[in-house]
Amino acid sequence: MDCKTVMGPVAVPLYADDPASSAIDFMREKRSGLVPVVDREGTFVGLLSGDRMMHFMIPASIHMMRGKKRASYLQESPAELQSRLDSLRNQTIRDLIDPDVKVAHEDTPFIDAMLLISEKQFVVPVLDKNDKLVGAISFFTLLHFLSDEQKKAEQGDAS
Questions:
Q1: Which CATH number goes with the domain that contains 97?
Q2: What is the greatest pairwise CA distance in the chain?
Q3: What's the pLDDT at 65?
């Protein structure tokens, strides 16, 4: 079984040159914590994730600390958090993505995508031979695939 067999479509990818505000709004509206990012030609450039966004929202003083980072002494207000989020809105999505994402191709064995997911890459983008984004695989994609396969088997048994 290959990735093309199991992958789900990516309904709305984000574009790398769009402002980050569109990504923030999209992620909030869709309650999506992980979104593929493409250029205007559809070539995959990276993933934008909620944890990556959180990285940019942590105060700079914490990033400068060495060793174990404990910051429970900080008392942050919603206004301070909102201010840091707002400061991201004017950047481009490309400025915020994680470009070091492992990908699969349509003919990649599905087991290889499963291994990536089990190693904490929760979504595996699936690319065609020209590196165009054609789909994605996640645990939920697998659940939908298995459900569809079970329905097909049940319909076959009913005939």
A1: 3.10.580.10
A2: 67
A3: 63
